[in-house]
Amino acid sequence: MAQPPVLSLNDIQLTFGGKPVFEGVTLSLAANERAVLVGRNGAGKSTLMKVIAGRIDPDEGEVWRQPGTHAVYLSQEPDLSGFDTLIEFAVQDLPAISADDRHVAEAELMALGLDPEANPAKLSGGQKRRAALARAFAADPDILLLDEPTNHLDIPAIEQLESRLQGFHGALLIVSHDRRFLEKISTSCFWLRQGQVKRYGEGYAKFDEWAAFVEAEDEKALDRLNTQLKAEQRWLERGVTARRKRNMGRLRKVMDMRAERHARKTGLNEMRATSDMVLETAEGAGKRVIEARGISKTFQTPAGDLPVVQDLSIRIQRGDRLGIVGPNGAGKSTLIKLLLGELEPDTGSVKLGTNLEIAYLDQNRDRLDPNDTLWQALAPEGGDQIVVRGTPRHVASYAQDFLFKSEQLRQPVSALSGGERNRLLLAIALAKPSNLLILDEPTNDLDMETLELLEDMLADYDGTLILVSHDRAFLDGVVTSCLSPVGEGKWLETPGGYSDAARQLKEIKGARTSKPAVNKAPADKSAKPAQKSQAKLSFKDKHRLGELDKLMPKLQARIEALEAELADPELFTRNATRFQAASEELSEARDTLENHEMEWLELEEKREALES
């Protein structure tokens, strides 16, 4: 039985600076519903959340909450200023602050690894985010509004938040760029599009499929409108003077159709907004990019020695895509500095390849002057040109590649949102040629459209990539191996994306406590096998390699056939059941092919190592 709504918006209208943001937003949120709010960059998701939270009043329309409900809003950038301790901040959303309530807030803070008496001014971005979540949960609201709750959280904290939200009994509305997070917690989706909201009654895992169908239907409607418009325009060419009184009504209809066509076309173009981000690879890099042998690094702390890296050996070769994962404080950024030679190891050695040209986007984002305009940040030497990988580009044209509008070019950097600042840094970092790209937490504050564009760009990059990220879906879509901490400064390299690493780490958990951790490094192909019997693949491996050689082409052919079938715009309308079945089969076939390819690569590497 459907739950009654605890919140509803009716025909919300809002205009900023003469430009309409919402033109009739209507939605309702039911008790126990876990909904996500999806929309392109700049569609107004955060603004709509503020309207729902009562932070912004709409020009027209009604925001209704069930009487007696308590709503809490966690903003995209929590403000902890003005509080001497975390506990003072954490009790602010409680209806009444009693001794018992204070204990609840303290418990929430400690559950998230925070000291209630800590000074908020000294917290990291991730700690501030956890403090804001503790404040929200301590209030035990009926309606919880979360704007980018996973920003700056590490993977363990994100998984802890997922578990907490899955057990939340109130109504939940979330804006987030973390696709895996949304897939795990959502039961419905709201799509903010062209100033209005469409509702989808299933979780985010199926959102893209539904959105593609909606856009295909809009394309058909636009085609029909174009056909009608051409007919009306042919009539207009014959003149409107005769039968003027009746014909003026028809002329007004044509004008209305033109306006509708423009609105539809503008909306579709906005949804198709893509970036031309292309990363050119510098010439001349050798096959070896980084080779670390037995490196260790220990820091002295008041509590004693803190081993960050212990006896790590790893070889990174041209074209590798290495993901470095782990909780905050595990030493990921320190490890990158060691691998780049920016920090000397206590023991061991690091050798860098020849002719390396490095592009580095660091985690701190310190390279932006808040007083500079976006134009000055892109072209610090002045003028209207920027040299992008050896080719002069107009600043406005290059900025457009990263989804910036021309009117933003004169805005100060301080006026940009977190996501916009991140896109600006990407634009600066990717302007120069490189054959080694280091991205330290590039996904923080990025919207989904930019994430997908960045994934596409990295897919075309034929240099070497080292990526630090807490975005599990992004890691799965980009990297080919992961380096993960396993305790006491030990790191383990595993093939595949984050999902593969998590599975393999889970399998070995416990076994490593009884013996020293061993770093997996690529095989030394100069070393000869100790025994002649090891010089060839086993019969089982050889047989499996032959099977994979036959299976993969068949799977690829099946995938292409399914893609062709699903490309039929009439399929969903004609046979929704077949559309669903084909979609599921395609997803399963792609996953199977990916697994087969990974297995084939591992066997090939094993064969080459044995035979060399």
Structural classification: alpha/beta
The main sheet comes to: 6 strands, mixed
Helicity level: 40-55%
Please write the CATH class name of the largest domain: Alpha Beta
Sequence stretches where pLDDT stays below 50 over 5 or more residues? 238-247, 268-275, 512-534
User: How many distinct beta strands?
Assistant: 20
Tell me the strand order in the biggest sheet. 5-6-7-3-8-9
CATH architecture assignment of the largest domain: 3-Layer(aba) Sandwich
**CATH H-level homologous superfamily name of the largest domain:** P-loop containing nucleotide triphosphate hydrolases
How many helical elements? 18
Which band does the percent of strand residues land in?
15-25%
Tell me the CATH topology of the largest domain. Answer: Rossmann fold
Count structural domains.
5
Radius of gyration: 28 Å
Shape: globular
Q: Mean pLDDT, nearest integer?
A: 80
In whole angstroms, how far apart are the ends? Answer: 66 Å
Task: Give your account of this protein's structure.
The protein is α/β, with parallel strands linked by helices and 612 residues long. The chain has five domains: 5-209, Rossmann fold (3-Layer(aba) Sandwich); 218-271; 287-357 and 434-522, Rossmann fold (3-Layer(aba) Sandwich); 366-433, no CATH class; 532-611, Valyl-tRNA synthetase, C-terminal domain (Helix Hairpins). The protein contains 18 helices and 20 strands. It has helices at residues 45-53, 86-90, 99-111, 125-138, 155-166, 179-185, 207-237, 244-271, 332-340, 374-378, 395-401, 418-429, 448-460, 472-478, 498-508, 539-566, 571-574, 576-611; strands spanning 5-16, 19-30, 34-38, 60-65, 71-74, 143-147, 171-175, 188-193, 196-200, 288-301, 304-317, 321-324, 347-352, 358-361, 385-388, 391-394, 436-440, 464-468, 481-487, 490-495. The protein has a six-stranded mixed beta sheet with strand order 5-6-7-3-8-9, with helices on both faces. A hairpin with a 2-residue loop joins strand 10 and strand 11. Helix 3 packs antiparallel against helix 4, helix 7 runs antiparallel to helix 8 and helix 16 (539-566) runs antiparallel to helix 18 (576-611). The longest helix has 36 residues, at 576-611. The N and C termini lie far apart (66 Å). Residues 238-247, 268-275 and 512-534 have low confidence and may be disordered.
